Amino acid sequence: MADELEDLVDIDVYDDGKPVEFGWLQGPNAAAILAAVRGQGPVPKTGLATRRQLRALGLRPGGQNAMPGLSWRNGRRKAYFYRIELALPKRTPTLAQERALDRAMAARQTCPTCRRRYHYCLPLRTLGSCLECYDGTPADPATYTLPPGHTLAA
Ligand SMILES: [Zn+2]
Fold it and tell me: Ligand 1: distance of its center to the CA of 144 in Å?
């Protein structure tokens, strides 16, 4: 059992037995990655990037383990690194997923009484409607859209 667990140790090409820690711009290819994040250069094939940097490069960690890391401000700030060569392209949601997301948001933003869709989520669980329907607080017309087919009474 103990032997099996030891077999699962993650092998790290940058590992020299000590916990890896880099200062600002000291990681492998750090300068090239920073330039790519800023749109000033190509995405390097190898190197270590933080999750935010991966995102800016259109990548995601893709299931790899995070490794420590970057530390700055005397070790009070830390970030985890991911290997660019193991990162995968960022997933773009399918149309069906987008539709499902929009439907879920619409349910939370639409007042069941006046059918207006607000740009924020309504307190449906507590008030059950928008503030204007609940207690007459006038809603800012800039914060909602009218349901399709609805025309303003003028
Ligand atoms: Zn309402």
Answer: 10
Joined tokens for residue 25: 């711009």
pLDDT in tens, 83-128: 999 999 888 888 888 899 899 999 999 999 999 999 999 999 999 9
Residues 100, 83 within the same domain: no
pLDDT at residue 10 tops 70? no
pLDDT of residue 12: 58
What residue type is 137 in one-letter code? Answer: T
| Ligand 1 centroid from CA 53, angstroms | 42
CA of 129 to the centre of ligand 1 (A): 5
- Look at residue 9 in the predicted model and tell me its pLDDT: 58
- Cα of 113 vs centre of ligand 1, distance in Å, is 5
Q: Same structural domain for residues 52 and 116?
A: no
Which residue range forms the structural domain that includes residue 34?
2-89
Cα(148) to centroid(ligand 1), Å: 15
Domain boundary among 53, 70, 89: 89
| Residue 65 and residue 11 in contact, taking contact as beta carbons nearer than 8 Å | no
DSSP-assigned letters across all residues of 126-142: TTSS-HHHHH-PPPPGG
Give the domain-ending residue among 53, 73, 89.
Answer: 89
